[in-house]
Automatic annotation (TrEMBL):
UniProt KW Membrane keyword: yes
Record GO biological process: chemotaxis; G protein-coupled receptor signaling pathway, coupled to cyclic nucleotide second messenger; lipid homeostasis; regulation of angiogenesis; regulation of muscle cell differentiation
Alphabetical keyword list: Cell membrane, G-protein coupled receptor, Membrane, Olfaction, Receptor, Sensory transduction, Transducer, Transmembrane, Transmembrane helix
Protein name (database record): Olfactory receptor family 10 subfamily J member 5
InterPro entries in the cross-refs: GPCR_Rhodpsn, GPCR_Rhodpsn_7TM, Olfact_rcpt
Record bears the keyword Zinc-finger: no
Listed GO CC annotations: plasma membrane
Domain G-protein coupled receptors family 1 profile: 41-289
Provenance organism: Marmota marmota marmota
GO molecular function, one term: olfactory receptor activity
Membrane topology: Multi-pass membrane protein
Subcellular location field: Cell membrane
Pfam families xrefs: 7tm_4
Transmembrane domains' residue ranges: 27-48, 60-82, 102-120, 141-164, 204-225, 237-259, 271-291
Length: 309
């Protein structure tokens, strides 16, 4: 569907998973199931962290903040995606598309820097344990969270403003939400400046956190190796294992999605990657921290015990 008069383009239509035909009902059931588990897992983490005083520490403050951000992040994208699997060719207005893109970019970048803050927390806990409570005070934790969200707001404002100053000729978005690259393809003018902006932002919010986390873990491993006992080394590394697992999957997907060469892009690959970082990765956070973290499991047992009593 093309429109000759640029001013007539007032809405977009997502093609989404239309190429999957009769399998869309199956996809709806699968995605809905995963989404319910994602919401339940993140809400449980936020709730258990708030009500259990044993989890009132910087590490779990960052974890509950990340879980809250992931919850809103999925709310921005997944409900509309599920709706499009049932009711085909649902339009979205340009302001609606801009709003969805703004919240998606803000929260995605916020999550990247929250994971960096969690890496710094682990670094201080292992490399400077005697000064941990002094360094990771409430003011520092709040500053790291506000800095993460503020960075997301600034980057999202830059990207979305640049995007929606473009004139659009097409209305069919070959995607299931207003992601940057699929929407940019609908512009009928040269988008080189936008591509430079988006690649610069993507490089900054992926490579800088990866660099900081890598430095933190190099220092953490160095400190762990100096621990005399095997049990002590195992216990120290166990406190980092969950975070490291989430980091590898999160930044792995983000790097492939936003730093890969344009020539390697295809609709099928982009859809698969988008499903991974919008549906699968948010589920990873509660699953990893619930199954691998003894303190969270103990807190859940205490909460269940109080409920039974």
């Amino acid at each position: 569907m093309q429109r000759k008069n640029l001013t007539e383009v007032t809405e977009f239509i997502f093609l989404g998973f239309s190429s999957f035909g009769k399998h869309q009902t199956t996809l709806f059931v699968v995605f809905l199931t995963v989404y319910i588990f994602t919401l339940a897992g993140n809400i449980i983490i936020v709730t258990i962290t708030c009500v259990d005083r044993h989890l009132h520490t910087p590490m779990y403050f960052f974890l509950s903040t990340l879980a809250s951000s992931e919850t809103v992040y999925t709310l921005v994208i997944v409900p509309r995606m599920l709706s499009s699997l049932v009711f085909y060719n649902q339009p979205i207005s340009l302001p609606g598309c801009a709003t969805q893109m703004f919240f998606f970019v803000t929260l995605a970048i916020n999550n990247c820097f929250l994971l960096t803050a969690m890496g710094y927390d682990r670094f201080v806990a292992i490399c400077a344990p005697l000064r941990y409570t002094v360094i990771m005070c409430k003011r520092m934790c709040a500053s790291l969270v506000c800095g993460s969200f503020g960075t997301g707001l600034m980057m999202a404002t830059l990207q979305v403003t640049a995007m929606f100053n473009l004139p659009f000729c097409g209305t069919l978005v070959d995607h299931f939400f207003c992601d940057i690259h699929p929407v940019m393809k609908l512009s009928c003018v040269d988008t080189t400046v936008n591509e430079i902006i988006n690649y610069g932002v993507s490089s900054f919010v992926i490579l800088v956190p990866i660099g900081l986390i890598t430095i933190s873990y190099i220092l953490i491993i160095y400190s762990i190796l100096k621990i005399a006992t095997a049990d002590g080394r195992k216990k120290a590394f166990a406190t980092c294992a969950s975070h490291l697992t989430v980091v590898i999957v999160h930044y792995g997907c983000a790097s492939i999605a936003y730093l890969k060469p344009k020539s390697e892009s295809s609709v099928e690959k982009d859809l698969l990657l988008s499903v991974t970082y919008t549906i699968i990765t948010p589920l990873l956070n509660p699953v990893v921290y619930s199954l691998r973290n003894k303190e969270v499991k103990d807190a859940l047992r205490r909460a269940v015990g109080r409920s039974v009593s």
